[in-house]
Amino acid sequence: MITCILFDLDDTLHDKRASLAKCGRRLFETHELNRYASENDFLQRFVDENCIIQPKEQVFAILAAAFGIEQAGAQQLKAEFDHTFHHHATPFPGVLETLEFLSSRNVPIGCVTNGRDFFQRNKITALGIAPFLDAIVTSGELGIKKPDPRIFHAALQQLGIVAAQAVFCGDSLKADMKPARELGMTTIWKSALKRAPEYVNYVLPEFSDFPNLWQTITA
Ligand SMILES: [Mg+2]
Fold it and tell me: How distant, in Å, are the alpha carbons of 38, 58, 83, 140 from that of 143?
């Protein structure tokens, strides 16, 4: 029987591209980056590079090289990004309503996310979702990243449940869906695509569809 749910953070609850665009615009203005590039060119590259899984040092080194920004300037940009990105954190529409819906039904909720611990936790707080979460596991804290099953086990253990009782909702097939299914969880793929691999149990295009889906899963 399904009794609890685990969510991925980035691109599942957190609208990463929207947050990055806001943060990039702010950095562009405060650092007068119009000296180096047009706002559109900078923003496009800034969002794209930050959406690639790579160390942030590398992201800012690439941006510096692409736009001719001096090394000291690039380091300043990274430091400011690290400490202010969460100010721009934007949830997908319906996320808070979904967590309220689950919480009002006493469903334990966990978050399993890859990323630096302070960075992920700052975002979780800024998104306003922290009060709903009964467990938060970050790869930065644990030193183990999804798709490693041990990070999923850590969350299950914190919630005091077994995999068969849990749903995992995430956007990544490789890091979220496949390992969660292999562990025996029910999987919800946060995706606009209709065709899903066999290890995906349900597809969720929008959070407005969540209450109906939850009823189906728990019926
Ligand atoms: Mg994700």
Answer: 38, 20, 21, 5
